[in-house]
């Protein structure tokens, strides 16, 4: 475990060096027979607008957004081809956060997909990169 | 500023930054509250200056646990800077001679300078940064804008081009600003405004506090070597 600290001694310090494809995480409710029962919805959508007081307040208190940044980093790793830990972590967080009862009382399962938003010529395209199997609302085991 | 004062001020600011970031986890949806309560206790020790060796090694150990659980950093660059700060503070406390203590804090200061200069240099190599496309893409479709309305900034390409060049020049000039006390003072104020803007626009609040925590070491190092 300690070996994980070693890169901190010699960080790369490259921020925003390349603006690559950006992930969009979406989920959709499924019935018990795994049929879709609703439209795709964004997971952890960003707020439409933040006023000055909110921007200042978030300097000291920003847990939800910092968690969103971590979730987005997991999705970026999926875009980079890593479907191990990041997919399990995303599924774990979705199981905990998705408001199944409020959004769709019939739903027993859900699925997630990750789209890659990227610039192609002069427009932004959204390319599906990952599509999960049907996932249970409760963690297996 | 003496070495002792710089170490104390760095530890105080680091402790406050880690108190803030750990507290955020207590109200989040994460289920590792015990770990972050422990980190708050250790960060509190760092703030008041008690048992610095226990505090820094404990924070490094819990930092390694977080790296293990998240399979990497939870909050990217700010986690990396936190760990670097703690490693350097630990080295200062373990160093048997004054010269080695200075070396440990000086290494932190050099890395802070590099954090700006390397970032500026790497961005300067990228044509998308030079022509303003990179910042437009950041606002238009990246994961970072903290609200949907901020994506509207992508419609101001000239402003973003100017901001992109201002950021690259500021980052590249940081090592030169280090050569004089007055210019370093100005550069640190500009750097603070830069991190404040990033915190507001991209929600990177942890970067603001942890980078501010490195400035006492930079200030001390400038007086020590120039």
Question: Explain this structure to me?
Answer:
The complex is a heterodimer of chains A (141) and B (226). Chain A is globular. Helix content of chain A is 33%, strand content 24%. Chain A has 141 residues and is an alpha+beta fold. Chain B is mainly alpha-helical. Helix content of chain B is 80%, strand content 0%. Chain B has helices spanning 3-26, 33-48, 52-69, 76-94, 98-125, 127-130, 133-141, 157-177, 181-202, 205-212, 215-225. In chain B, helix 5 runs antiparallel to helix 8 (157-177) and helix 8 runs antiparallel to helix 9 (181-202). Chain B is globular, with a radius of gyration of 19 Å. Chain B starts with a helix and ends with a helix. Chains A and B meet through helix 1, helix 2, helix 3, helix 4 and strand 3 of A and helix 1, helix 3, helix 4, helix 5 and helix 7 of B.
Highlighted features:
heterodimer, A: 141 residues, alpha+beta, five-stranded antiparallel sheet, 5 helices, 5 strands, B: 226 residues, mainly alpha, 11 helices, globular
Give the structure's gist in a few sentences.
The complex is a heterodimer of chains A (141) and B (226). Chain A is an alpha+beta fold. Chain A is built from five helices and five strands.
Topology of this structure?
The complex is a heterodimer of chains A (141) and B (226).
Chain A: H1 6-9, E1 22-30, E2 41-42, H2 52-60, H3 63-79, H4 85-97, H5 100-103, E3 109-120, E4 123-131, E5 135-136
Antiparallel strand pairs in A: 1-2, 1-3, 3-4, 3-5
Helix pairs in contact in A: 3-4
Chain B: H1 3-26, H2 33-48, H3 52-69, H4 76-94, H5 98-125, H6 127-130, H7 133-141, H8 157-177, H9 181-202, H10 205-212, H11 215-225
């Amino acid at each position: 475990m300690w070996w994980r600290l070693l890169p901190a001694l010699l960080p790369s310090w490259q921020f925003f060096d390349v603006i690559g494809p950006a992930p969009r995480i979406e989920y959709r409710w499924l019935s018990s027979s795994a049929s879709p029962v609703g439209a795709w919805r964004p997971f952890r959508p960003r707020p439409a607008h933040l006023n000055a007081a909110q921007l200042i307040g978030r300097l000291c208190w920003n847990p939800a957004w910092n968690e969103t940044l971590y979730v987005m980093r997991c999705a970026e790793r999926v875009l980079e081809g890593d479907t191990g830990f990041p997919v399990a972590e995303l599924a774990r967080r979705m199981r905990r956060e998705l408001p199944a009862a409020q959004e769709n009382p019939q739903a027993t399962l859900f699925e997630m997909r990750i789209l890659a938003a990227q610039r192609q010529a002069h427009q932004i395209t959204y390319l599906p990169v990952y599509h999960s199997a049907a996932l249970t609302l409760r963690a297996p085991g | 500023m003496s070495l002792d004062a710089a170490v104390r001020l760095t530890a105080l600011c680091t402790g406050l930054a880690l108190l803030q970031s750990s507290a955020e986890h207590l109200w989040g949806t994460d289920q590792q509250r015990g770990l972050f309560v422990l980190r708050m206790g250790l960060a509190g020790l760092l703030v008041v200056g008690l048992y610095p060796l226990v505090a820094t090694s404990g924070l490094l150990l819990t930092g390694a646990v977080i790296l293990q659980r998240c399979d990497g950093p939870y909050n990217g660059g700010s986690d990396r800077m936190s760990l670097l700060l703690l490693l350097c503070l630990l080295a200062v406390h373990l160093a048997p001679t004054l010269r080695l203590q200075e070396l440990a804090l000086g290494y932190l200061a050099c890395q802070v300078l590099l954090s700006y200069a390397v970032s500026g240099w790497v961005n300067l190599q990228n044509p998308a940064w030079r022509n303003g496309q990179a910042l437009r893409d950041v606002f238009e479709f990246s994961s970072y804008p903290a609200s949907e309305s901020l994506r509207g900034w992508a419609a101001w390409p000239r402003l973003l081009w100017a901001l992109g060049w201002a950021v690259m020049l500021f980052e590249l000039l940081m090592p030169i600003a280090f050569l004089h006390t007055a210019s370093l003072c100005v550069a640190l104020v500009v750097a603070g405004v830069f991190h404040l803007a990033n915190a507001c626009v991209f929600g990177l609040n942890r970067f603001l506090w942890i980078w501010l925590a490195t400035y006492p070491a930079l200030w001390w190092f400038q007086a020590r070597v120039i």
